[in-house]
Amino acid sequence: MGETELSIILLSARVAFTAILCALVPAFAVAWLLARKEFTGKGIVQALVTLPLVLPPVVTGYGLLILFGSKGPLGKLFETLFGIGFAFRWTGAALAAGVMAFPLLVRPIRLSLEAMDRGYGEAARTLGASRLTVFFTITLPLALPGIIAGSVLGFAKALGEFGATITFVSNIPGETQTLSLAIYALLQSPSGDAAALRLIAIAVALALAAIVASEYLARKLTAKGRA
Amino acid sequence: MTVLDVDIKGLAGSFEIETAFQAGAGVTALFGPSGAGKSTLLKMIAGTARPQSGRIVAGGRTLFDSATGTNLPPEKRGIGFVFQDARLFPHLSVRKNLTYARWAGRRPVSRAFDEVVALLGLETRLDAAPATLSGGERQRVAIGRALLADPALLLMDEPLSSLDKARRNEILPYLEAIRTEAGIPILYVSHETSEVARLADTVVLIENGRVSDSGPAATILARLGLSAGTASEDAGVILEGHVTETDPAYHTAIITLDEDRIELTGDGFAVGMTVRLHVRAGDVAIANAPHDGLSIRNQLLATVEEIRRDGAFAMVALALGGQRLLARITAKSSDDLALRPGTRVYALLKAVSVEMARLERPDPRFTPASSPR
Description:
The complex is a heterodimer of chains A (227) and B (373).
Chain A: H1 3-36, H2 42-54, H3 57-68, H4 73-82, H5 90-115, H6 119-126, H7 131-160, H8 163-169, H9 179-188, H10 193-226
Helix pairs in contact in A: 1-5, 1-7, 2-5, 3-8, 5-7, 5-8, 6-7, 7-10, 9-10
Chain B: E1 4-12, E2 15-23, E3 27-31, H1 38-46, E4 53-58, E5 61-65, E6 70-71, E7 79-82, H2 94-98, H3 100-103, H4 113-119, H5 135-147, E8 153-157, H6 165-181, E9 186-190, H7 193-199, E10 202-207, E11 210-216, H8 217-228, E12 236-247, E13 252-256, E14 261-265, E15 274-280, E16 284-287, E17 298-310, E18 313-320, E19 323-330, H9 331-336, E20 344-349, E21 353-358
Parallel strand pairs in B: 3-9, 3-10, 7-8, 8-9
Antiparallel strand pairs in B: 1-2, 1-4, 4-5, 5-6, 10-11, 12-13, 12-15, 13-14, 15-21, 16-20, 17-18, 17-20, 18-19
Helix pairs in contact in B: 5-6
């Protein structure tokens, strides 16, 4: 594996990890709201969350460009508040990956929260636990399988994200050129077939490793629940 | 002493609850048909459902008072709850479940862990996961978990209804042990006459969200049996007495009621024990004179108090010292014997079941025996 290939993989990993780490808490919050609360506009929230899944990724990328570009309202806000710029930067790639992975994170977490017997929380309260304690000792541990399933799915999506990323932050080697973008770029050049194949092999290996790891984690968790 | 004072109005689904009752030490049964609002009432006392108005005071503390806007959250009420479906936390071991109130609820350690574990016979299951437990074990863990939260009052919402008959009989002795050993007042919701007969000191009858009757268990059950009519298979009474003699050769014991003696079989008895007997109306026959040459050994002199006729059958209430007995006989027998209030008759007990027998410290593994037939 050459140096450029390694840097492409490291960049992709950084983008995907950042995306999932930043998206996880808001995804849990949205999943919790959708699973546990009734409020006006619930349908709209649900539609917004699902939108990146059904919209052409190019459209999502263009939306991000308008909102989070250097002249976009949210882009300016982040720039002045936190000093984080998104335009043509790896942070933008992470944002695009996070937005695209968001619905995949929310769904399994929401399902695990919906499947959870609310009676456990009630029982815990009568044993002296406050709402917050119930959350950390009951709700969160019981939702863990859903959180892990969502994270694995979301990570895979973030790692392979293409359309929204290339539209939003372009294809800049060393900055926004993740694995999928690099493969695409190589396939465009007449002499890139061999290099592209190497990257494709790496992508397949990474995907397999992720599947094995998630299976192992899931089995370990359920085993702990039953032993 | 009043432990719990409830006077509330609220909604249970679509119908209205309007209930006032008090509970003291020992076991108070909230008894009534399914859907009468009993479970909702318990939730309101525990704080997981909110009454519309009224007051709930437990152990001298006001838990809810609509007049002052008081509404303590469940974790501040100090009330233990044993749910119908146990609700053990599936991701925690039995030990972690039992100690949940201590490590998550920060409740004081006032009851020894080992004592509760021994009382409920859970020594060997502490490291098991809830999913591997039997239904009976699960319910025992739930009871232990509630006890270890150091409650001032224990609420039990039909804790035996999800269990089969064998499992029920496995749990009942533990409940009896708790009622005497732990000294915690218990409010017990049930629609099973036999459970109430066995456990309750006081019965509060709930119908359509309202208290329709309340008082000592024996009185309420006898009244209930009479009003339920002859159709009720379940009608029966509770008699309380003391063991005055035992005969190991025949494995029998004599139970003395106020003025009468009842002979029972069984080996669990010791002189001085308090015994509670459940006698079904269908197991009582009536004769106008004592009979020799019968295999039925218990023949008690009693006075007819009241007769209710219903089709082919008649339910006869008999005064027996200060206690009451119900007999379900045919209407024709009633006429042939010329029964009317005041008639002196002999009540023939075909079967008697022992609901409870205890000295100062009961043996939780005591097995109920039945009388000679």
